[in-house]
Specification:
single chain, 13% strand, binds BIS(adenosine)-5'-pentaphosphate, alpha/beta, globular
Length: 210
Amino acid sequence: MGPPGGGKGTQAKRLQERFGIVHLSTGDMLRAAVKAGTAVGQQARAVMDAGKLVSDELIVAMIAERTCLADCASGFILDGFPRTIPQAEALDKLLTEKGVTLDKVIEVEVPDARLIERITGRFTCAKCGEGYHDKFKQPKVAGVCDVCGSKDFTRRADDTVETVTARLKAYHAQTAPLLPYYQAKGLLIVIDGDRPMDAVTADLERVLGT
Ligand code: AP5
């Protein structure tokens, strides 16, 4: 968990590689649906472009379906889900039905003032999805992806200052109330995300017991 641009995706990808556990990002799933022009994508597009939250029903159905796939059998890292109390309650129910225990809930905490710069500077390799930043993580060779060598990069449609402001508002109003929800269950761990990426990763690996 954490605010838009807090580093959830960056860190979850690293944990996926480190632990070999699949990374499920509801934002990535929705963007794939928008790109593919599916019914879900058509419903979600305008909501995402406005920086608001997609309906709980749609998101919960998407996660319920995705977590049934074979690659989730030995666990999964949720990124960007749950984001509302009804989603958290639906997750509790889903996990109970599956006989799966939620091990930890990690909040990557970053002050709002840092987030606009992080988000508006973000870009991604269009071929392999590797994430970059104009200032904090540039490709080693300018214009060439370090991982796959592609020269094709994209920026997200919702990474404008206006939309990030709306996303932050949604985060504070609808998602931040989940922090006390998980604290009361004794699951919440707070990590200081306002540090270099490697320092944040080291902290995550420590709390995950490596
Ligand atoms: P989603 O894709 O989940 O976006 P988000 O939560 O706004 O988070 P971001 O992906 O923007 O940021 P991040 O925390 O992953 O940061 P990143 O690692 O990329 O959701 C998009 C939309 O989909 C939502 O607005 C909503 O409409 C919908 N949606 C998704 N899930 C939903 C749900 N459950 N319910 C309802 N609607 C839902 O890092 C950002 C940048 O900073 C990168 O360039 C990175 O290189 C850089 N960076 C990362 N860490 C550091 C660091 N430590 N120091 C310096 N730079 C850093």
